[in-house]
Fold this protein.
Amino acid sequence: MKLGLLQDELRRLRRLLQKSEGQKLLLQIVDDLTEEERSLLNERIDRLIGHVIRLKNSFDLTKEERVVRQIVKATSAYLSVQMEEIISDKLKGYGEITLEVKETLDPILIEIISILRQMESIV
């Protein structure tokens, strides 16, 4: 449901605004917002959530049920396809891939894909 997607993304943005700077393994988030911008964004998020609540109540929308098994299976399948797209043979559009890159990249990606498929088969 699209409203569920909106709700999920608003929650993600709310967390980002609360803890705006952070560092992950392959991502660094730098907070470039002023307090005024942060306040205005939080107010807009509150208004959007209010609209979602009103729509839910007006149309008697039921909660979408998400099953962990389905989430794990779908996420694992999606991620394995994403990893398959960066195997060296498929990177030709990015320039020449050296043998060294191929020998380093591909075995790790193949292992990642294998683990993702194992996760998918567990559930």
In short: Residues 35-58 form the longest helix (24 residues).
